[in-house]
Amino acid sequence: MSHSANSRYASDDAKWAAVAARDKQADGEFFYSVRTTGVYCRPSCGARLARRENVAFHADMAAAERAGFRPCKRCKPDEGAQGARHAALVTAACRRIEAADVPPTLETLANEAGLSPHYFHRLFRAVTGVTPRAYANARRAERVRDALPAASSVTSAYYDAGFNSNGRFYAKSDALLGMKPAAFRAGGKAESIRFAVAQCSLGALLVAATSRGLCAISLGDDPDTLVRELQDRFPQAELVGADTGFERWVAQVVGFVESPRIGLSLPLDVRGTAFQQRVWQALRDVPAGETASYAQIAERIGAPRAVRAVAQACASNTLAVAIPCHRIVRNDGAVSGYRWGVERKRALLSQEREAQEAREAPAPGDTVTKGKR
Q1: 325 included as an active-site residue
Q2: Which of 41, 45, 75, 215 is catalytic?
Q3: For the residues 268-284, what does the mean pLDDT come to?
Q4: Alpha-helix residue ranges (DSSP H) falling in the chain
């Protein structure tokens, strides 16, 4: 407790005034209990104000519980502490997974956390957004991606990453790497990527595609910078200029960026972890003209506490507008955080809102006279 807070709530009269005012700034500085209900609360609790003679004050939750009071079910004064404990347990489990040569079993992780496997599994998924197994697979994928360029062979890279058989690794390799392991090891060598740069109302637009589909839609001010970023992503890939067929793809993408509501029928080469894939699919389910918060996306994918991980997945998106991370805003509706610039995000949202309003506006002659049908 800070000295200033200590002074502000030093007397019982000051504490009572904070409780009567439901002062949120007093939360965590002290707790109060109500003799007639047998519960203890935060100062800001929204429950009906108790009579002063039935109220006592406590320095912390432990003191309130020693006095025989239980946590209030409305303001849940113990929830913050429990949430911190749970986050610490999951963080420790993540570090354990990352450090292990062979991913620990669910039972091992649960035992180390002092929880049942079923409860630990639910807790881990609620905090991270993925299961322990999916988290372990994502870490192994990172190890493979980091190890392949310098590895003496593909085999040594996947064994070092924790895959115990080449069959299991190759079964997952395309989704993990977006190309064959040998090609990834060579920095994308033998991967052919068609690309072109065009202009749209938002500036320069780079469109790139592998044989699987669009792998990049990037926005920027400088076309050369966009091309260099693509080269850095695939340093050894063969970058091929647009042919007539690909120019038609580019034209479709430009039209789609200018008017996202028309949709994009081109295939996408989406590369990411299982969690990122879930987030990106949820983004694609947000209609043009609407927005959602990071917290709402986390709820929709069944991981309400993984808000930060959702934000990171949005930042990792390489397909502007096709995976519409521009429709994700803060809880207060404020526009922030966009890989291709906040001003472009505002422009996209404004453009989509205007299109929505124009579509919903009554056509000339459709006005209904009041009182008549």
Answers
A1: yes
A2: 41
A3: 85
A4: 3-8, 12-20, 61-66, 79-99, 106-113, 117-128, 132-147, 154-160, 166-177, 181-185, 223-233, 244-258, 274-284, 294-300, 307-315, 342-360
